């Protein structure tokens, strides 16, 4: 079957020995990571989750870092096989005044982290537009740590020169998913035109060397993905030293190449079974990343809750420590869906904010407001 996470057939270290090694802060081998990732045994899953939760609380206390996302444009030069954003005919670019109104709302509520996300547009005109917006945000809200607004960009694969300009203008962090650290699997998710694994890797390394707090991530459960792929991804995060990790389950969008292929080649029962496995393994992946890369920030994504109700709560009581409520104006939300069935599309920003506060109450955690909360891995390396 095309649509499943495949387990290796070779002999692996036991779950218990692999977890013991992780708790002893040993550098896990590839096969030890696979052993932890692939477990579906309820007792083992609970052990893994509890240990990740203990470590998360040890490092971050009972706090969850909050970042507000404004998805400011669905125009994109790329056409990734899995992503629904480029399929929308009604393209938008939210005007800067409306974005600043979103920032006003966020700042008043205590948010000090703004995520500006869009499809990839590499023109000088777009970069100048973002530079102007950065200037306006920093001028209005300040650049000082914790009192000013920390700006996180997620606007795609740009040139080093463009990244440098944005950094010099005040951008603090950048999110760019590797999607897969395996070149062949990466290629299966992207058309050949305008896509290169080597260029994506170079872009990530550019961001980190410039000085950004750098985030990356993958999807869990894309076609032909194996547990070996996921283990390699975690080794990639660890060995490259990225500061923030965002990942979620792959979800189908019917108007994409990958979505149409899956709808044609799999049954509804197969997709349902795969979806549950993806949700469970995504939680495992959060937990294994925490044990393997303890000082990173890990975001619990909206996609996880879309797939299975209550799973965002589980993520934040395990390895995840970051939540990113959508602050995009309501009228634009339906035009920015990587996958179908996205949560929060029919909400306004106040409803999204209140939903986040209610979630915090149910898990007995405190949203961390009025703090930038750089990942400990970043602050550790900066102090050297």
TrEMBL record:
[4Fe-4S] cluster binds at residues 76, 80, 83. The lineage of its organism: Eukaryota, Metamonada, Parabasalia, Tritrichomonadida, Tritrichomonadidae. GO terms for molecular function: 4 iron, 4 sulfur cluster binding; metal ion binding; transferase activity. It comes from Tritrichomonas foetus. The keyword Transcription regulation does not apply. InterPro entries: Aldolase_TIM, Elp3/MiaA/NifB-like_rSAM, FeFe-hyd_HydE_rSAM, HydE/PylB-like, rSAM, rSAM_sf. Its cofactor is [4Fe-4S] cluster. Binds 1 [4Fe-4S] cluster. The cluster is coordinated with 3 cysteines and an exchangeable S-adenosyl-L-methionine. Pfam families: Radical_SAM. Residues 62-294 form the Radical SAM core domain. This is Radical SAM domain containing protein.
């Amino acid at each position: 079957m095309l649509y499943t996470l495949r387990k290796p057939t070779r002999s692996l270290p036991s779950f218990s020995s692999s977890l013991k090694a992780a708790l002893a802060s040993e550098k896990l081998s590839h096969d030890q990571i696979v052993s932890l990732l692939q477990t579906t045994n309820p007792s083992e899953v609970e052990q893994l989750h509890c240990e990740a939760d203990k470590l998360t609380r040890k490092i971050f206390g009972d706090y969850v870092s909050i970042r507000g996302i404004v998805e400011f444009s669905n125009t994109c030069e790329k056409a990734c096989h899995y992503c629904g954003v480029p399929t929308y005919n009604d393209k938008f670019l939210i005007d800067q005044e409306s974005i600043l109104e979103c920032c006003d709302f966020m700042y008043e509520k205590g948010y000090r982290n703004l995520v500006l996300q869009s499809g990839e547009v590499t023109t000088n005109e777009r970069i100048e537009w973002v530079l102007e917006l950065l200037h306006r945000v920093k001028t209005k809200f300040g650049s000082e740590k914790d009192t000013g607004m920390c700006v996180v960009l997620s606007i795609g694969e740009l040139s080093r020169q463009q990244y440098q300009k944005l950094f010099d203008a005040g951008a603090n962090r950048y999110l760019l998913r590797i999607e897969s650290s395996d070149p062949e699997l990466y290629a299966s998710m992207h058309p050949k035109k305008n896509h290169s694994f080597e260029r994506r890797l170079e872009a990530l390394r550019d961001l980190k060397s410039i000085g950004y707090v750098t985030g990356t991530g993958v999807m869990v459960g894309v076609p032909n993905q194996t547990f070996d792929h996921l283990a390699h991804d975690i080794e990639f995060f660890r060995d490259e030293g990225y500061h923030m990790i965002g990942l979620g389950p792959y979800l189908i969008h019917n108007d994409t190449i990958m979505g149409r292929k899956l709808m044609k080649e799999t049954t509804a029962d197969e997709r349902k079974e795969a979806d549950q496995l993806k949700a469970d393994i995504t939680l495992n992946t959060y937990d294994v990343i925490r044990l393997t890369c303890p000082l990173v920030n890990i975001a619990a994504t909206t996609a996880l809750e879309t797939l299975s109700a209550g799973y965002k709560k589980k993520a934040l009581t395990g390895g995840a420590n970051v939540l990113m409520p959508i602050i995009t104006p309501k009228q634009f939300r339906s035009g920015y869906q990587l996958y179908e069935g996205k949560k929060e599309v029919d909400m306004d920003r106040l409803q999204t904010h209140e939903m986040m506060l209610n979630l915090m109450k149910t898990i007995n955690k405190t949203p961390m407001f009025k703090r930038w909360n750089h990942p400990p891995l970043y602050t550790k390396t900066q102090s050297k």
